[in-house]
Every structure is written in C-alpha cells, then in structure tokens.
Amino acid sequence: MKKIIISIMLFSIFAYSMDNDDPLIIKTSIHALEHRVSDNEKMNFLDGELSLGYDLSKVIFKTHIEQNEKELETGELRAVYSFATHPYWDVQMGIRKDFQENGKEYLSLGIDGLYPYLIDTEAVLFMNKDGLFQARLALEHEIMITQKLMLMLGSEIDVFSKNDENAEIGRGLSSSEVSLKLMYAINKQIIPYIGIHSENKYFTTREMSEGEEKDIFFYTIGIHSWF
Predict the structure, then answer these.
(1) CB atoms < 10 A from the CB of 25, how many?
(2) Residue 154 and residue 206: Cα distance in Å, rounded?
(3) pLDDT digits 0-9 by tens, 102-125
(4) What stretches in the chain show pLDDT beneath 70?
C-alpha cells in the first residue's frame, strides 16, 4: 500500500511536469533544530522537510523528532503528495510512520497554507488500520520588529478519536504545545533564535508515573534554516 501511494505521488509529479515549463525545485527546510531545557529535563528537537517537485505539485518528506537524555520520545516521518488548490492553500495526502516504541503507520489527509492575517496553518487528519483517528492543528504567526528581528508565535493541538492502550493515548484532546521565539535573520537562509516552549498533556490511558509531569515549561535555543 505504501509503495503504491508513493508511486502515485511520483507519477503525478512527472505527469504535471510534461505540460509545464516550471523548473524542478529541490528544497530542504529546517523549521526548528533546537535544544530545550526545563527544571528536570533536557530535550533535542528537529522539525524539517525535504520537498521535490514544481510550483503547484510536489512530493514532501516531513520529519518530527523529539529525544530526551534517555530515549526517543517522538519519531515521525511523513511522505505526502502536495498540490495547490488556491494561491495560498495546498492539499496534502500521504502516509506517516512513527518510530518510537509502539509506533504505528497512518494514512494522512490535510491542508497547509496561509490563513488571513498571515497565520501559517497546517490541519491534518491521520487514520491507522485499527480505526484510530488523530486530528492535528498547527499554527504559526510571525511579527516583524525590525527587518531582521522578529517574534514567532506557535501552537499545536492533537485530538484522538478513541483510547489506545498500547500508545497510552486517551480519547479527546490529548496534548497541546505553545511556543514563543525571538528570531534574528542573519540572512534569509539562516535564522537563529531563543525562546520558551510549553507542553501540556491532558488525557492518557494511565496514571502519570512518579516524577513525570503533565505540564512542562522549556527554555529553548535553536536555528531555522532552508537551502
């Protein structure tokens, strides 16, 4: 099934290119490569993507990794076919593979684009073979202070359709994240930043273990880049 979906993505890119003069574009974007520090924990985080295709049609590989000092907390890789339906919006469909313990595979369908008031928006629905649905909404808004200095406000929520004992996930609103970054553009491709990040867990299928926190506040330092 995964091979069929990826083959359809690549064929669609090739078919589109036969009728257009757009150049093939390969772009790597590191949305966030950062180190997070709280009172009791240190975390490394990567959010990036590799896109291959044309202006209106492309294949994108997205990765999302969180690792503390002991283990991989979240390891996610997505392959999606993205096509423009509006000057500011793309529809994206594909597959997702989780690599952490008890990680599963999902089909995904979502939209990615720019909401009014310049809010970067990604809304995705995931479904696995067990009939578990996961809805994710991620928002970002950039506030320019000077031509090089800016504030980036970010938030993300995850909602699940039912309990999953293996993944220790509870039905309903499962988690949320909020971040604030002060960024300085050395140039258009390299933007270091410092900031704060809050993670909140709501419903799980187990009691929190001793010493485990439902709400964690981090100080962060990182870099945003693309090439």
Answers:
(1) 11
(2) 28
(3) 788 999 999 999 988 889 999 999
(4) 1-21, 165-170, 203-213
Give me the numbers of helices (H) and strands (E) for the chain, helices first please. Answer: 1, 12
How far is the C-alpha of 69 from the C-alpha of 90, rounded, in Å?
37
Cα atoms found within 13 Å of the Cα of residue 218, Cβ hemisphere only: 25
Bridge pairing between strands 42-53 and 25-37: antiparallel
Report the DSSP pairing between strands 172-184 and 42-53. unpaired
Q: For residue 66, what are the contacts with CB-CB under 8 A and spacing of at least 6? A: 43, 44, 45, 72, 73, 74, 75
Query: Would strands 190-201 and 133-144 be described as parallel, antiparallel, or unpaired?
Result: unpaired
With residues binned 3-state (H G I as helix, E B as strand, rest as coil), the percentages for the chain, rounded to 5, are 5, 65, 30
Alpha helices in 124-199 (DSSP H): none
Q: What is the C-alpha separation between 217 and 201, in angstroms, rounded? A: 12
pTM of the predicted model as reported, rounded to 2 decimal places: 0.85
Q: Which residue segments constitute the domains of the chain, with CATH numbers given?
A: 2-226 (2.40.160.40)
